[in-house]
Amino acid sequence: MSVSFSDLNLDKSLLSALEAAGYQSPTPVQAETIPAALDNHDLMASAQTGSGKTAAFLLPTLQKLIQRTTKPGKGPRALVLTPTRELAQQVEKNAREYGKNMPWLRTVTLVGGTSFGQQIRALGRPIDLVVATPGRLMDHMRQGRIDFSRLEVLILDEADRMLDMGFIEDIETIVAATPQDRQTLLFSATWDGLVGKLAQKLTNNPQRIDIARQETQGKIDEQLLYCDDLRHKNRILDHILRDSDIDQAVIFTATKAMTEQLADELYEKGFSANCLHGDMPQGWRNRTLMDLRKGRIKILVATDVAARGIDVPSITHVINYDLPKQAEDYVHRIGRTGRAGRSGLAISFAEVNEYIKVHKIERYLNRKLPEQTIEGMEPTRKRSKPANNKGGRRRSNSSGGKGGWQAEQGRRNGGSGNSNGGHKSYGRGRDGNYSRSGSGNRNGQARSAQAK
Ligand SMILES: Nc1ncnc2c1ncn2[C@@H]1O[C@H](COP(=O)(O)OP(=O)(O)OP(=O)(O)O)[C@@H](O)[C@H]1O
Ligand SMILES: [Mg+2]
């Protein structure tokens, strides 16, 4: 028997917000998590990408917040910690959407890279929900701006990733400042290693919820394409991006510099592409993601900063231009497509000497990646295990080899006479400052995205 949201003892205000959001019934992780959380259990939950974990922790939390507190103070009643700034912002956005019929609800995102002023003002009045990355939250805590005495619910989203990013000490400090009798809801892709130990420490008799992958919950088709070298890889990429089935795509690369270089190269070829990585000023990061959400860019070239949690339902394709360093990141990267029951295509490039990396991913997945070739673009080199890799892979520079991506950025900042519209790129000028470039639209018309 299928469960409906109205079976879950949620307040009318939440039910009507869910209806407005177009949610017809709870996803499996929501159906299990919501009653357990409403029953005040601590939880350790995991479920596949795009399966609605955010609402699984926000709905019972908002339901709790509806019962107004009598506790004095102005500290948050619920706190969500996330590994990235973008994810924190997205979670707060979801909270506002689900809480849209709770006009008294006050939420704030506390993340780095943005000014303190607005955050400090928000904390100056009683706040219901704080969504934060650990670093900025700690900054506020050190200044004595946060009082956790009213805190009822603590949530860690992508807990394993936060530990990978080295946030363990911050998390322990934050948790130590919260009341013992809080409810703790942990969401993580794995409970192996450190994150399992942390979970034991943070929770009290937790209920484990592990939702196995559901075939009906969105289907991500996968392809593995071997390439001879970078030139071959770029030819294949170009071929794929000209596929008219692409609505929006995320391309993952191994380095920040490569996101910029590749986004530039794609832009020069006429694709509506931009890059996202952790060294970009936060304003640009926000703008780029907003442009992606609004469909103003079709191709996002990103590092793993975009691998976790980011929800842009119109992403139809994920391309692993470089294979992820850690096998589990493969799952998160490809999970940027095929969200909420949609289908998607994930294509991974491997150079012929990257056989071991592929094998590692396959071992992690416990299945083979479906290998494919494109007619007329088959690899010609023999596959081999990586030898000692004389100096590793070399990146060619399609802009003529004059100093790599920095030269490229400098050239663009200096005005290359490029009249493409719709491309809001950012770059680092020779002075090392970040600046916007390439946004001029001399024709008053956006050059069409060929990826469309
Ligand atoms: N019950 C529902 N019915 C329809 N759509 C839903 C439902 N719950 C969530 N969604 C939508 O599903 C998408 C994915 O949700 P969400 O980002 O919470 O997934 P997730 O499990 O956290 O994924 P990830 O592991 O990538 O972080 C969102 O666009 C969300 O609006
Ligand atoms: Mg999520």
Structure overview:
With 452 residues, this protein is an alpha/beta fold. 34% of the residues lie in helices and 17% in strands. The radius of gyration is 23 Å and the shape is globular. The structure holds adenosine-5'-triphosphate and magnesium ion (MG). Magnesium ion (MG) is lined by residues 53-54, 157, 309.
Total count of helical runs of at least 4 residues:
15
Low-confidence stretches: 387-424, 427-452
Number of strands: 16
Q: What is the mean pLDDT? A: 87
Bound molecules: adenosine-5'-triphosphate, magnesium ion
What share of residues are in beta strands? 15-25%
Structural category is alpha/beta
Rg calculated over all Cα atoms: 23 Å
Distance between the termini: 41 Å
Rough shape?
Answer: globular
Helix content: 25-40%
Strand order of the largest sheet: 3-4-2-5-6-1-7
**In this structure, how is the largest beta sheet organized?**
7 strands, parallel
Topology readout:
Layout: H1 12-20, H2 28-38, E1 43-46, H3 53-66, E2 78-81, H4 85-98, E3 107-110, H5 116-123, E4 129-132, H6 134-142, E5 153-156, H7 159-164, H8 168-176, E6 183-187, H9 194-202, E7 207-210, E8 219-227, H10 230-241, E9 248-252, H11 256-268, E10 273-276, H12 282-293, E11 299-302, E12 315-320, H13 327-334, E13 343-351, H14 355-365, E14 371-372, H15 404-413, E15 425-428, E16 434-437
Parallel strand pairs: 1-6, 1-7, 2-4, 2-5, 3-4, 5-6, 8-13, 8-14, 9-11, 9-12, 10-11, 12-13
Antiparallel strand pairs: 15-16
Bound molecules: adenosine-5'-triphosphate (ATP) and magnesium ion.
Adenosine-5'-triphosphate binds at residues 23, 26-27, 30, 47, 49-55, 309, 311, 313, 335, 339-340.
